[in-house]
Amino acid sequence: MTTNLILQGLTTQRSDIDRMAALAGGRRIVALADHAYRVEDVQFSEAIKASIDQECFGAKLDYAFTPAARRLADFGLVAMDMDSTLITIECIDEIADMQGLKPQVAEITEAAMRGEIEFRESLTRRVALLKGLEASALQRVYDERLKLSPGAERMLGVVKAAGLKTLLVSGGFTFFTDRMKTRLDLDYTHSNVLEVVDGKLTGRVVGGIVDADEKMHTVERVCAELGISTRKAIVMGDGANDLKMMGISGMSVAFRAKPVVRAQADVALNFVGLDGILSLFE
After folding, report:
1. Which of 70, 131, 189, 244 has a CA that sits 20 to 30 A from residue 1's CA?
2. Active site residues
3. Of the candidates 158, 151, 8, 188, which has an alpha carbon nearest to the alpha carbon of residue 73?
4. How many other β-carbons are positioned within 10 Å of the β-carbon of residue 255?
5. How far apart are the first and last CA of the chain?
């Protein structure tokens, strides 16, 4: 199979592109857009990939080895994590900030995303710290702090135009995924329900917790509903709890991700926006 090397960054130096192409033994360099290039007919080996990885990170370039002639329309679903993937924040950390507890909660969040704490345990511990908080704090987080990741809207627009369905599956909360579904016209969402009694958070989640296994099963369920294999899904995430759903996909994308996730993903976007995946297709 002919393999191409995609190189892209927020800015690029042609000398860096030429150097990467030489490392990969590419035959031809094609400019795709501002700061994005395709190096065609490259040699692939784990040793070459390791060299490219080190050189690109130093030059603040994202790279991906891709099959030639792969099209976006070859896929049927884009599944995304929400916190720190589709959006720039961890919602639970910002909710905790309303209680003056952001450092404590953020520390648990980081450990969970690195895979050091099992997600179910971490969520239970973090949500418990929110007990007694006015539920109106959720709207404040949405209004004042939630921002889409760079390139999110462009990526979704092109994906939808190509006929793919969209799934937002999150270890976060329905308060936010419901609003994202409406705001971005997403096809499917699945996340956790925070219990609210008398206008205050109880410190508990209602029903099952959307952990790594549930995320994977959600991708499987949606693909089954669409009548496609999970290999026809592009799955994007940043934390250890995304690895299982990324592992069953046809293309896994680590976005601004923890090292454990970058190491296992097909593609890592460390510098460009979510729309960086669009350069990976012809």
Report:
1. 244
2. 81, 83
3. 158
4. 28
5. 15
Where does the chain have alpha helices with state H? Answer: 14-24, 46-58, 91-97, 102-113, 119-128, 136-144, 152-161, 174-184, 212-226, 243-247, 259-264
Tell me if 65 sits within 8 A of 1, measured CB to CB.
no
Q: How far apart are alpha carbons 74 and 216 in whole angstroms?
A: 21
For residue 245, the domain's CATH number is 3.40.50.1000
In 3D, which of 139, 36, 151 has the Cα closest to residue 85? 151
Predicted pLDDT of residue 34: 85
Residues 121 and 150 in one domain: yes
- Asked if residue 78 and residue 34 are part of one domain, the reply reads no
Token pair of 184, please?
Answer: 């971005």
Q: Would the pTM of this model clear 0.85, i.e. be above it? A: yes
| Pair of tokens at residue 113 | 């995303």
Query: How confident is the model over 204-213, as pLDDT tens digits?
Result: 999 999 999 9
Q: Are strands 233-237 and 251-255 parallel, antiparallel or unpaired?
A: parallel
